[in-house]
Specification:
heterodimer, A: about 290 residues, mainly alpha, MetI-like fold, about 80% helix, B: about 290 residues, 2 domains, about 0% strand, disordered N terminus
Chain lengths: ~290, ~290
């Protein structure tokens, strides 16, 4: 085969394993248009509507006492729910990634259960558990313990909704890393805790951080489940997402979007941190793609 | 952390021995926490549902309003999942195979529906697609299509919340596909389209089906984003989760429980199918 023929052959193969420039352009345009219309446009609308009437209106809406109360409650709920699921996530990931035992995949399915439950149904199960006509209801009332339509109910529903996030982020990462480093550490005489904090934790810290951020964004933004268990008491059991609904239905769209912009910024920060972490620590976080 | 000293470990015949400590502690903690937060509350729903009895259960389930709500939820979720599958594969393809400026940020944007609260998405979509909103007015002028406050709106919201699933399940598989098989197909004389449909597509199929199922399952249960963009009229644009909320507000616990049970049974069946698909995928293609 002559040299020219060989180059021609090579070019043909290259064309055959990729698309032509026209096809590329069309596919890229469709993908960009789809993402632009479906994702970027709604995000832009939030900020346009929030800031459209000027910064004065924006900060006025945020400074309302009900908004401040909702913000405080949202921060409180996340401050309890995220650490609770963090401890669970680490324990579950250690169990599943470092040991082989029967029923492991069944346990993984159980951990995923809250993903398959509608947020409204998640709220409902706690209404059925703690409500006035449940088995626990009368006892709770006698002892003056308020769970439903109060902060504890909101916290429990949020923990349920965000239950798998950190575990799901850590498990594939720790499975991928194996346990040889931990085994070396233990056989050199380090205790289990020391091995965890000095060997495992540094290896998974970026994946863990992203799991915590995602869990936090979800905890602060949960709507359906919290809506069912909260009772919508203004200034008392309203979280930010519920407050958005109330403002929106009261025809205070600008105020609703001002509050919404806070949560949208939280989402953007979460995604930005993820992107930066992925750029710097590509291999360490790449494992997990499913939520 | 001495719960699994070598002597103790021998009694656990159902697990492989390991020098690492913490098996007992992490197993105990995981199971207790899982039971308290997830299993016991879910079992409560099952018990309450069982106490309804078949007659009452079927009477609620076959109520016309309930059937229409379930039909709307499952139908819209199905359409949204199909649209998300087509565009999700395309987006995954573009993100993996093509290099263009801003690719990394576009990749990050795909996760937006995971991170953006559903209520925020709901009011944004309702504003966009309202009859006087920027997109709503255009669609009405051009195609005479009403999206906001109709069942199209429900589908639109479900496309938004389900969008990342197909992309995120297909993307890693596509990244791992060996380009050499494509070269082989090409040198054996296959045209590009044939290579894509006969070589690449079969390898992606389990991931595509998994993404479809996840997107569908998410759409069926979605509440927050939908209620703002749908008009929520009984018999017309009322989704099943909304009907649960309405029944609860009417103190109709039996009604709420029955609808929730139907939705849960179907979701768990979906979860089971997803797990089978992934096991199948691991077996045949060696990756998830």
């Amino acid at each position: 085969m002559s040299e020219a023929a060989a180059t021609r052959q090579q070019r043909k193969v290259r064309q055959a394993i990729g698309e032509g420039p026209a096809t590329r352009f069309v596919l890229l345009t469709i993908a960009l248009a789809f993402l632009g219309l479906m994702l970027v446009a709604p995000l832009l609308v939030v900020f346009v509507e929030a800031f459209g009437r000027g910064l004065g209106v924006y900060f006025q809406a945020l400074a309302l006492p009900d908004t401040m109360a909702a913000l405080q409650l949202t921060l409180l709920v996340a401050a309890i729910a995220v650490p609770a699921n963090l401890v669970f996530g680490v324990a579950a990931a250690w169990l599943i990634a470092k040991f082989d035992f029967k029923g492991k995949s069944f346990l993984l399915t159980l951990i995923d259960l809250p993903f398959a439950v509608s947020p409204v149904v998640s709220g409902l199960i706690f209404v059925l558990l703690f409500g006035a006509n449940s088995a626990l209801g009368p006892w709770l009332e006698d002892n003056n313990i308020k769970i439903l339509y109060a902060v504890p109910g909101i916290v429990i529903a949020t923990i349920f909704i965000t239950f798998p996030f950190i575990a799901r982020e850590l498990i594939p990462l720790m499975e991928q890393q194996g346990s040889s480093e931990e085994e070396a550490s233990v056989s050199l005489g380090a205790s289990g805790w020391r091995t965890f904090f000095q060997v495992t934790l540094p290896n998974v810290k970026w994946g863990l951080l992203y799991g915590v951020l995602l869990c936090n964004a979800r905890a602060m933004g949960e709507f359906g489940a919290v809506s069912v268990v909260s009772g919508h008491i203004r200034g008392v059991t309203n979280t930010l997402p519920l407050h958005i609904e109330i403002l929106y239905n009261d025809n205070k769209a600008a105020a609703a979007f001002a509050v919404a912009s806070l949560l949208a910024m939280l989402a953007l920060v979460t995604l930005a941190v993820k992107t930066l972490l992925e750029a710097r620590f590509a291999g360490e976080i790449a494992a997990q793609r499913r939520h | 952390m001495t719960a699994t000293a070598p002597d103790g470990a021998r009694s656990f015949r159902w697990r492989r021995r390991s020098v690492l400590p913490g098996f007992g502690l992490s197993l105990g903690y995981t199971i207790v926490y899982l039971s308290l937060i997830v299993l016991i509350p879910l079992a409560g729903l099952g018990i309450r549902s069982a106490s309804l009895g078949w007659d009452q259960f079927w009477a609620i389930a076959f109520d016309r309003r309930v059937l229409l709500a379930l039909q709307l939820s499952f139908g819209s979720a199905l359409i949204a999942a199909i649209i998300n599958t087509v565009f999700g594969v395309l987006v995954a393809w573009v993100l993996v195979r093509y290099r263009f400026p801003g690719r990394r940020w576009l990749d990050a944007a795909v996760d937006l529906p995971f991170a953006l609260p559903t209520a925020v998405a709901g009011i944004a979509l309702a504003t966009l697609y309202a009859p006087n909103g920027p997109f709503g007015a255009l669609l009405d002028d051009w195609f005479g299509l009403r999206v906001g406050f109709t069942s199209f709106g429900v589908v639109m919201a479900l496309i938004f919340v389900g969008l990342p699933f197909v992309v995120r399940t297909v993307q890693p598989v596509l990244e791992e596909i060996d380009r050499e098989t494509e070269e082989v197909a090409a040198t054996l004389g296959a045209r590009r389209w044939r290579t894509v449909t006969r070589v690449i597509f079969p390898a992606l199929l389990p991931a595509i089906l998994t993404g479809f199922a996840l997107s569908f399952a998410r759409g069926v249960g979605e509440y927050g984003s939908v209620i703002f963009i749908a008009s929520n009229l009984p018999f017309q644009s009322e989704i099943a989760p909304l009907l649960i909320v309405i029944k609860l507000e009417e103190n109709n616990y039996a009604g709420a429980t029955a609808i929730a049970t139907i939705m849960l049974v179907i979701s768990f069946a979906m979860l089971f199918v997803i797990n089978l698909l992934q096991a199948w995928s691991r077996k045949w293609f060696g990756h998830e």
